[in-house]
Structures are given as C-alpha cells and as structure tokens.
Amino acid sequence: MVHRPAGALACALMSAVVAAGVLSAPLVPAGGSCLRHKTLVAWVAAATLAQRGGSALTLEDRGDHFDAIVFGELAPGKWMAGSDMFSRTQRDQSGVPAETAGPGTFVQIAIAYRGGQVAIYRDGRLLTQYAMPAPPREFGPDSLVLFGRRHRRQGDSAHFGGRIADARIYDRALDAVELGTLRMDAEPALAPWAWWTFDDPGGTDRTGRFPNARLRAGAHIEGGVLVLDGIDDSLLCTTGAEPPFVQETPAMPAEVPSTWLSFHLAHPGPGVAVPGDPNCASYWKGRYHLHYIYNSRDGFAFAHVSSTDLVHWRWHPTTLTPSTTGHGMFSGTGFYTREGRPAIIYHGQGSGRNQIAFALDDNLERWTEPVPVEPTILPGQDASLIAHWDPDAWLEGSVYYALSGGSPGSGKPPTLFRSQDLRQWDYLGRFLSHDMPDVASDEDISCPNFFRIGGRRMLLCISHNKGCRYYLGEFRDEKFVPESHHRMNWRGWDFFAPESLLTPDGRRVMWAWCHLGEGLPVQSGIQSLPRELTLPRDGVLRMRPLRELASLRADARIRRGLAARDGVPAPIPGLEGDTLEIRAVVRPGTARRHGLRVYADPTGVGGLPITVDLAAQTLSVGETTAPFTLPRGEDLVLRVFLDKSVVEVFANDRQAVVAARRGPPSGMHASLFAEGGEAVVREVRWWRMRSIYAPPQ
After folding, report:
1. What confidence tens digit (pLDDT) does each residue in 539-568 have?
2. Most C-beta atoms within 10 A of its C-beta, which of 21, 31, 211, 239?
3. Based on the number of CB atoms within 10 Å of its own CB, is 561 exposed (0-12), middle (13-18) or buried (19 or more)?
4. Using alpha carbons only, what angle is made at residue 648 by residues 647 and 652, rounded to the nearest 5 degrees?
5. For residue 375, what are the β-bridge partners?
6. Of the candidates 672, 600, 604, 685, the residue with the CA atom closest to the CA atom of residue 639
7. Whether 520 contacts 508, CB under 8 Å
C-alpha cells in the first residue's frame, strides 16, 4: 500500500466529489493535488498587542483541522503558526521575538509550510523555524478561509482585533527573498493561489476559489481594509454551500484489522477521535452510558456508547453534534437533576460558554436545546477570572454547583457557580482556596470531575502539559480546600482527560483517554481500562482494574515456584500471546531490580520490560516510569493487561501505568528477570482475554 500523509485520502475523495459536480470551485492547486506545501501571508495592523488567540488568516478543513497566522495564543505579543490541538505549532516560543508595531502600522506576517518544516517571517525576516510535532495536513476542495476567529469551533471567544489590508495563500513554501518581493495591494509577480485585497465590500477572494464571503457581527471593509473589532467580528469565505448534515453511528468494520485492540473501548470510525476525551458518564434504567469526543463529518461531536456491564459496549446514533446543538462538543460530565433525571454539562466549542442539556428519552439519544451557563456578576466581583472552559456540575443537598475549568494558556483559575434551577447562576469566584506547591504555574485545570471518596473530596482533572492528576481535600464554605496533589500520567498524554461515575453498588469507576502517540496500528480514541478507585483510611488511593473485566477471561493457566537469577531470565512455560491478563506474585528476594518481560522471544529475552526498582522506588513499563514504593517484606503483585500493542500495569493496587509497545515484538512469550540478586515468582496466573466486540459468553 502506498503511504499517504494525513488528509491525503480525504483530499483524493473530495477531489472526486468536486469532479462529479457536487461541490463547486475546486480548491485544488495546479496539478490537481490538494494543498500541502503552502504559505499564508497577511499585511496586518494589530489594534492592541495585549490581545490573545485571534487569527489574521486561517485555512481550515471541514474536520476542524486548521493552519493559521495566530497572535498571542501561547505567548503574549507573539505571532505563531496556530493549528488544531497545537499539532503543527511550536509550543516553546521563548526564542520568538515579540511584536512591537503600533496600532496604525502594517507589518507583513508570513508562515511557510514545506513538508514537516514551518518558517515564520515578519517583513521578510525570519522570526523562527521548526519541525512540526505532528505530520503536515493537506487541505482539500471543501476547505474554507477565516479571518478574526482562530477557527470556526474554537474553544474560547478569542478574535483578532485590528486591520488587514491584504491576505494571500500560495500553493508552495516561499522563502525570505520571495517574500521580500511582495508588496501590499500590488499585483504580484508570484501568482497567489487565493488573494484578498478587500476592494469589494463583501470581502471575496480575487482568484474565485472562495466565491462565498460572509462578514459577521461588526466586521466591515473600509478603504480597502478589513476592520475587525477583536470581540466577535470575523469574515468567513467558503467554496460553496455547507454540506448537508447526515446522522452517523460509529461501527466496527466488517473486516477488523488484526492489530486493532480487542478489549479496550476505542473509536472504530467514521472520523477519528483525536481528541477522544471520555465525557458525560451516567447510569440510567439499567445501562451505563458514556460519551467521548470525536471528529465527525459535522465537526466535534459526542460518540455515545452504552453497556450493562461496563465491559461490552454498543454504539448509539451520534446525536450531539454541531448541527443539533449549534456548537462543537467539548469536555464535560454527567449529573442528575433534583428530580433524578440525567443531564449533561459540557463546553460548547465555539460558543464561548459551557452548556447544559437534559435527556428527553431513556436511551439518552434525544436532548433538550442546550442552555448556556451565564453567571450573574455583582458589583465588585472579578469576572475576568472566568475561563468558560471544561465544566463539571453536581447537586449538593438542594443546591446545584457548576465548576468551570481554567483554560490552557489563559492563566485563569477554575471558578465556581451556584444555582437553584440550573438556569440562573450566582458567581462564587475561585474554586480552589489555594493551589499545591508541586503544581507548576503553567498548569491548567481542565476536564474536572469533583466527587466524594473515602470521606474526602477528589478533584480529578488534567493539566495539558502534565496529563491526568488529582487533588484530595475538603469542600468547605463553597471552596475546595486541597490537602494533597498527585499524578496519574507519566509520559506524554498516555493517560489524559479523565471521566468517572458512581455505580449503583457504590463503586467509583474512571476512564481516561490514552493518546499514545503516532504510528500505532490501532484505533483512535482509546479509552483506558475502567479503574475502580477507593480511598482507605491510610489516605493512599487504590486503583484496581474493573472487576467485571474478569468476565473476559478464558483458558486459565497457573505456574508456581519460578525463580530468576541475576542477569538470567526465567521464561514462564506456556505464557504466550498478545491479548492476555497476567497476575504475578513476586517475592523480591535479594534482587535490586526485578519484574516481567512481555512480548519476549522464547528464551525470555527482548520484548517490553515491566520493572520494579527497589532502590529508585519506581515502576517502569518500557520507557514510562512512575513512582512506586514496595516496603520490605511485601510481595510485588502485578496485574498486567496485554491488548495487542497497548499495555496496562497495576502494581499492588497503588500504582498504574499505561504504555505502548512500538515496533514488531521480539515474540509473544514472557519471562521473569532479576538484577543484583534473585527473585522468585510465588505464583503466576494468566488468561486469554475475549474481545469486547463479540457478544458476551
């Protein structure tokens, strides 16, 4: 099979649609391919250098992927290459010079994309260049162009404020010399692929590629210049009519790839679940319901699955989409009203607000029109703290509380609102009484979930730069008073965006989105195995695999009394496969480091090591390392789940790690190993795990 870069298949399909006459004005450069190498150029005068996160020029596809000239989103006063989930953005902008031009001064800002390389120029001089953190994106015949907003369904209300005199897109990467020959509003020697000189009052593209232009709010053209107020003004340019909304239901393909995960819930398509945050979990009328974000044909939507056992899931029609709600669907949680009915609260992507909807049927497929969470601000209250970001809601006695997270890069804290009816909200200010000393100043609180556990309160959340984490403390005088802070993620976004629910028998069960990086031959939107959380009197959180996962076990095997000497692996006879649960009880003996190797060759060599280092007090799974203490005299109890290329490890119920096996395995075997002494396996049990995508047995 010929490898195509991200977006290439969609480009080929959309080109065919254009050729068939379904869409007009093909957005395809000379030669017939989709736009990949390109340069975005704009002559802009910012109204203020304090503004954050608006765009002077955005190229976006119908799947909410975009590349853009963005001002001040990650670092104040600096131009950057904006992109979906920062996937083609330089996150560290410490070396990028800040803008200095005054409000009436136009500067040429250009961003050139050549393969995986990005270069940003100001008036023809290089500001910065870097390699994209993710593959480049191709833009097909149904793409659009936007001025003012960063992209259509952005998660905040940021808009660029100022004046734009000329904007262009070139179908190749220009260099500094070529950019130096360009003049504002002058006929260029280099023909643009798309060009706006704002000579007509409608703001249409001179090349005819984007014949439909729509000025929004107070955006207007004055003296050949596009004027944007930085509040809600924008200009949207499209190739044709919006495609009709078609409801879809995710489903496994008729032929499932052999590398796909077997007992993790993951998104099978259509679209991709990146992000794939689990959201809005609840139990209703004998079924558990869970939603997760995915990029549908209609934009960011909530996929909906339900189950009777938290293990075997079925997909429902996708009904919470931009076409039905009026905005994209971003993170939130489920809760129950005072009358005991299911409700959801979530961030309405592009609405600038958090939203609440109420279930209209027992399948949770029909919902009311969303109601925005609009707090009343009293004189003297500081509304500038409110981020209107990832929310949570709960009923405390007869009072509703809504928590609004602190959006990444904004520096805003989580804030709290109170209501008697879920429609009128009082603003209560900051949610946390204080933060903890091990939390960095640039960590946001997103994907929050606040609940009781073990006589305490837990705030389960993420920071975008550190992943899943939690606080323990008290809810007192309408503030959360944290007493401790802990991590649950140890590498990248391996364990990210948590959600939880309370089962009818009183268990707190959580999931997290496992974004294990590029290149794995698996589904997108991988959800972690469900974890049962408990907090006993010693104050140490226990994390156990969901007990219902035992229903997937088949072909039980057991071995006892195996030993590994220093540097000599001990293969475990009969333990073989890549869809397994393994439970090993190991006596450390004299070994300094010991553990298991999985995906090893028949001699027990190679593969992926699962290592406990007694001196360093760590648990490692391959390259992922987490803190873990094994007191002297305590056996190591490992629960290991192998699901093709995804591995989840639980150690003594006190630590858990998610990791990925990359590349071909050394084999399908397992072994015990020890370093600096001897270790003994008292007992190892293992089971083949059945697929959750087959009917329960």
Report:
1. 999 999 999 999 999 999 999 999 999 999
2. 239
3. exposed
4. 140
5. 425
6. 685
7. no
Q: What is the pLDDT of residues 128-165, one digit of tens each?
A: 999 999 889 999 888 999 999 998 877 677 899 999 99
Residue 678 lies in a domain: yes
Q: What is the pTM of this model?
A: 0.78
The maximal CA–CA distance of the chain, rounded, in angstroms, is 86
Same domain, 558 and 669: yes
How many structural domains compose the chain?
3
Same domain, 539 and 647: no
Q: Looking at the domain assignment, is residue 166 inside a domain?
A: yes
Last residue of a domain, one of 497, 516, 545: 545
One domain for residues 535 and 558:
no
Q: What is the DSSP letter of 266?
A: -
Is 472 found in the same domain as 445?
yes
Query: How far is the CA of 182 from the CAs of 179, 224, 354, in angstroms?
Result: 5, 18, 44
- Taking CB atoms within 8 Å and a gap of at least 24, the contacts of 8-14 are 8/34, 8/138, 10/61, 10/63, 10/138, 10/140, 11/138, 11/139, 11/140, 11/141, 13/140, 14/140, 14/141, 14/142
Cβ atoms of residues 320 and 334 within 8 Å: no
The whole domain housing 615 covers 550-689
Instruction: List the Cα angle 637/638/641 in 5-degree steps.
Output: 155
Q: Which of 212, 238, 264 corresponds to the end of one domain?
A: 238
Is there a single domain that holds both residue 525 and residue 602?
A: no
Regions of the chain short of the pLDDT cut 50 = 1-10, 12-32, 696-697
pLDDT of residue 217: 83
Which two structure tokens, joined as six digits, stand for 594?
A: 């010991």
pLDDT digits (tens, 9 = 90+) for 218-235: 899 999 999 999 988 899
